[in-house]
Amino acid sequence: MTTPTTSNRGLSRRTLMTGAGTAALGVLGGVTGARALGAVPAPAAGSAVPPAEAAGAPTGFATFAWLGTSGWRIRTPTTTVLLDPYVTRFDTGLAAGAFRATTRLRVDAAALDAALGAAGTADGAVDSILVTHTHWDHFADVPHLARTRGATVFTTLTGYHLGLAMGVPREQLAVVRGSEEMHLGDLVLRVVPSLHSRTASGGLLFPGVHTRVPAPPRTIADLPEGDTLSYLLRSPQGRSVLLLGGSDYDDRALRGLRVHTVALPVPSTDVTADYAGRLLAALDGVEQVVLVHWDDFESPLADPPRADERTRGRMRDLTERIGQLSPGTRVVVPEYGTPLDLL
């Protein structure tokens, strides 16, 4: 989620939550396009980024469809995985420059069924849900999806306790901390310790953790950050995708990982030092960056995704910086529901 600045002056959907935005997905079924921003050809052998042939090009083993914000639906021949599936949209006062932390939580079940397929159908089946952190624009729809689809939720201890408070059966909640590596159907999942983005003053929106089951959350402020994780998914062919949920990371935890594609949130402040440079140095040879968490997270999902001019400018700046540091790395801007062949 994005993070608030220290003043309401110039407050917008983007300045509230660093590195993110959201969107809504109800009518996306047939969207199939993505745009390359500053895309470049595959580098020659010996350049900073190995050519696709050297690492093994994507085989179509898994398709990734962007759900807005940092959300994804990933489908393999046997498995469907969601990451931070926030499809419900509601007004928190951001557009008017009057953010309300007391905004009540709600779930739009019809929008979720339209975006993900109806519960109880083959199209709507979900095996696992990965949660990067428990702010509302990442977690609010997760308990409903878990209850109606029977999916296992991989989350922090805070997410575990919130899930119990929101009616998720205990046996569907799996606590992870980082560094776990496990089979997830026909994928291999590695949990990677991570960090959440910061406000313009260096603070954190809705900080806190839950070490026991709280009262059922009623407002967006009742869903704290609760620590942040990222997830690396690897195919049997060895291709890998790193999925980030906030515009910060622990570069020490990333070193030594072989990552072909990273889903990278667009930061809305400059608090995080050398955001692109440290990431690219830690991962050492990323072929592709997919920009996420830049769209307006309160507007119903409809293509093209909405973003204000300030955010578009930050996207251009980030793309240019990546191009300067790693000319062989492609930068892709997805559209809602776009099937991307990343593995």
In short:
The protein contains 8 helices and 15 strands. Helix content is 18%, strand content 20%. With 343 residues, it is of the alpha/beta class.
Secondary structure topology:
Layout: E1 34-36, H1 52-55, E2 63-68, E3 71-75, E4 80-83, H2 109-116, E5 128-130, H3 136-139, H4 142-149, E6 152-155, H5 157-165, E7 173-175, E8 181-184, E9 187-193, E10 229-234, E11 240-243, H6 251-254, E12 261-265, H7 275-283, E13 288-292, H8 309-325, E14 330-334, E15 339-341
Parallel strand pairs: 4-5, 5-6, 6-7, 11-12, 12-13, 13-14
Antiparallel strand pairs: 1-14, 2-3, 2-15, 3-4, 8-9, 9-10, 10-11
Would you write up a description of this structure?
The protein is an alpha/beta fold and 343 residues long. The protein is 18% helix and 20% strand. The strands form 2 sheets. It has an 8-stranded mixed beta sheet with strand order 1-14-13-12-11-10-9-8, with helices on one face. The protein has a 7-stranded mixed beta sheet with strand order 7-6-5-4-3-2-15, covered by helices on one side. The longest helix has 17 residues, at 309-325.
H and E string? EHEEEHEHHEHEEEEEHEHEHEE
- What is the mean pLDDT? 86
The largest β sheet comes out as: 8 strands, mixed
Which stretches are poorly predicted, pLDDT < 50 over at least 5 residues? 2-33, 36-55
The fraction of residues in strands falls at: 15-25%
Helix content: 10-25%
Tally of individual helices: 8
- Using the CA coordinates, give the radius of gyration: 18 Å
Class computed from helices, strands and strand pairing: alpha/beta
Question: Which word captures the global form?
Answer: globular
Number of E-state strands: 15
How far apart lie the N and C ends? 26 Å
**What topology, given as strand order, has the largest sheet?**
1-14-13-12-11-10-9-8
